[in-house]
Design a protein that fits this description.
297 residues; alpha+beta; Beta-lactamase; two-stranded antiparallel ribbon
């Protein structure tokens, strides 16, 4: 009997030693193979008051007041577009731009894509007008077409926000025009943006430089972001800009470096929509910092 017990003990010890060796190997492999994306980025000179930088896995590389309640301005149109895309089974379906839509948003001094009353437009036309030109004429027409009214469409937007767990977000309109109750946070916007860019249609539109419609005359819609960064398209693949006096300059962008993609959400940069683009400067600053000397463990 004693030899059997000792044999069993030796067998147990061998298994225990093997287990410890495996654990040590796993520990060593994990900590010696951490990639740069798992390190933090330093952005000490950021113009924006709120910011969040994520890698492809959703790891946070930099954040600044990411949970503050902010006004999303035209970053709202990310939700407008993805809701409309998911509701659509035919992007070539047509509708007409109404005089009421044009007059409503002209009176509010909203940004416009360039559609005119009486134009026959497709859902695709309106999506490009929404994401590239940030046109309220496009969002208003899209909302009416998809849900019958902007109010009904906004209900769908808020339902989608709840579905995505955007607990700091509430929409009042589809365009992002200022309203005290129209709020979000850059963390919520990052969740929405990560979700939206997984949709191939959304991604294709967002990363396009321009688009031409026939409504019935030719209308060229140009990216309000990429038009401001000639020569930098390789750094910023695409994104959605935004501005109101209350929201400041805002940007949700896709950054690519060394074959990897990152998303960078910023709001509340000082300035106007027509002067030096501090929100774009911030995105280019993040591009420079990724993988560079401003990375820290």
């Amino acid at each position: 009997m004693p030899p059997i017990i000792m044999c069993g003990g030796r067998f147990f010890m061998k298994k225990f030693v093997l287990f410890c060796f495996i654990c040590a190997a796993v520990f060593f492999f994990y900590y010696t193979n951490k990639t740069p994306e798992q390190t933090q980025v330093e952005l000490p000179s950021l113009h924006s008051k709120n910011a969040l930088l994520l890698n492809e896995k959703g790891d946070v590389l930099f954040e600044k007041n990411a949970d503050d309640i902010i006004y999303p301005a035209s970053l709202t149109k990310i939700m407008t577009a993805i809701v409309a895309i998911e509701m659509s089974n035919d992007l070539q379906k047509q509708t007409i731009v109404t005089p009421q839509t044009i007059s409503k948003f002209t009176a509010q001094n909203a940004s416009m894509a360039g559609f005119k009353a009486g134009d026959f437009v497709t859902i695709e036309d309106l999506l490009y007008g929404t994401l590239l030109a940030s046109g309220a004429d496009a969002t208003g027409t899209l909302a009416d077409m998809m849900a019958g009214s902007e109010e009904a469409f906004v209900t769908l937007m808020n339902n989608k926000a709840q579905e995505l767990g955007l607990n700091d977000t509430h929409f009042v309109n589809a365009s992002g025009l200022h309203d005290p109750a129209h709020v979000s946070s850059v963390r919520d916007i990052s969740k929405l943006f990560r979700y939206a860019i997984k949709n191939p249609t959304f991604y294709q539109i967002l990363t396009s430089k321009s688009y031409m419609t026939h409504v019935p005359n030719e209308l060229t819609i140009t990216s309000s972001l990429l038009a401001k960064i000639p020569g930098e398209e390789g750094a910023i693949l695409g994104g959605k800009t935004g501005y109101t006096p209350e929201a400041g300059l805002c940007l949700a962008s896709i950054i690519e470096k060394d074959g990897k993609q990152y998303i960078f959400i910023t709001t509340n940069a000082n300035g106007k929509a027509w002067i030096p683009p501090f929100h774009i400067d911030d995105a280019l600053m993040a591009y420079d910092a990724i993988g560079g000397k401003n990375m820290k463990k």
